[in-house]
Amino acid sequence: MKQAFFAIAAASGMLLAGYSAGAQTLFTYGKKNVTQQEFLKAFQKNPTATQSPTAIQDYLPLYINYKLKVQFAYDEGMDSLPAQQDELYQYQEQLTESFIARQSNTEALVTEAMQRSQHDRFVRHLSIPFEPGNATSEQKAKQLADAAFAQLQSKVAFTKVLNQYSSDEDAKKQGGIVGWITAFTLPYFYETAVYTAKPGSATAPVKGSDAYHLFL
């Protein structure tokens, strides 16, 4: 305990004195040294690092105690205990599985994009806007989008449905034509809706941030 107290006192004195050299030893424990650079690197990872003028001094005793506890664990051979070894192994397995899952997902997305890029789709678009955060407005837009979708499924002409449900005059003039698309032309969830639907078939309404969208 005295060792920790003297280490804190000495290190605090050095910080107050304004030492800034990166290789300057801040404190020692046993035969090991901790430099100011090492301490400051750990301190800067602390979310509260810049919230108080005395934060760096407040963090110092915590960091020293942490170093002493880790060293005590090594001295007692805790790192070689079967339970600790098993826990470490399980943690490594979890990291490996997570990495493989992310890698597999990335490979699947690349394959998907390659496949889609070989089959362009000609797309028309109908949007039915709503006021974000307004549940009533959103519900009404959803009902209109569902009604428009039902008509498109019944093979009603897209331009007729567009003129009935769209409030976008420019879209009406252009017949809702987006044109030919391929991978990465549209935001991913819209692109997926288009490529999931059969060519020539309407997509179910896709909710955006401020509108429901249908594609044909």
TrEMBL record:
Lineage top rank: taxon: Bacteria
Keyword Transferase appears in the UniProt entry: no
InterPro entries linked to this entry: PPIase_dom_sf (IPR046357), PPIase_PpiC (IPR000297), PrsA_foldase (IPR050245)
Sequence ranges assigned to domain PpiC in this UniProt record: 118-216
Leader peptide range in chain numbering: 1-23
Pfam families: Rotamase
Keywords linked to the UniProt accession: Isomerase, Rotamase, Signal
GO terms for MF: peptidyl-prolyl cis-trans isomerase activity
The protein's name in its UniProt record: PpiC domain-containing protein
